[in-house]
FAD-binding domain-containing protein (Adineta steineri), 322 residues
Amino acid sequence: MNSKSSGISGLVSALLLNRLNIKIRIYEQTENIQSIGFGLNLLPYCVKTLYELGLENELNEISIKTGKVLFYSRYGQLIFEDLRGLDGDYRCPMCSIHRGYLHQLLFRHVRQKLGHSSIKLSQKLINFTNKSDYIQMGFLNTTTGEIKSDVTKLLIGADGINSTVRKILYPNDGPPICQGLHTWRGLTSVDKLYLDGRTMICMENPDTAYFVMYPLNNNLINPACVSRVKQEDTSFLAPDKSEWTNIGHWKDSLPLIKDMKLDFIDIEQIIKSSTVINQFPITDRNIISQWTFNGVTLIGDAAHPMHIRCSSIISFFHSLWY
């Protein structure tokens, strides 16, 4: 079986299938795996899957076991407290973690359990043909330009919102769609975490923006701001570069949260102190009629992209289903 992409859903799928003694090959178009990205919130059923894969101790070392979410008005008035994970009587915690740290953890374990040769880098899928009893695939080496073919019994397209597998299955699908929501995300190093160090903060200014902030480890906070930059009734195609690695600037997000105040932390300073700010549109795709065609299937954002707060959860569910 081949998995196209070594993203989180592809790596989790590989580890789960390996437990069933299914031989896996993973093709990744990048030349190396880097610790990029921002925060992820893994809900208890996601964490349970990782624990069952033998990752409990390492996951606990590189994440925060989030205990609650506090919802505030823009003026700092506490509206609601929502207990999460173990504090909310689940059997497993909710873990907040840097995406890059989780990615590296999964990547390392895939190589340990499946062997280094199981992940083939610099391999961009350019075509595949679904035969009666096998699938023939063509790959472009993004480093050398060489084109090679390979065959497999099953192909999993875990290649994200700009999925090549999906594009081949649905050639008229078009680019990702955005309805005007943009997000600014950052990473801020701190000497000491706010409150108990295990709390997510959510605030909203109904007229401008939604703000969320949570710790990823003992000295790292993930601030994020979501705002609509187009009229609500306007649908438009996302920019060509709809990647979540696009560089942004804190000066663009500060006006959106200028009225939001908390008495225990300086939100503006947290954003200004971020080591990196990324800005990107929140994109979606139209619903498709099916994800699986004989021996080819889509998972994660390749199947149906979701809001950034839901995508990691869906990726894990897809990994379990397939």
Observations:
- The two ends are 12 Å apart (CA to CA).
- The chain has two domains: 2-64+96-174+287-321, 177-283.
- Confidence is low (pLDDT under 50) at residues 232-241, 309-322.
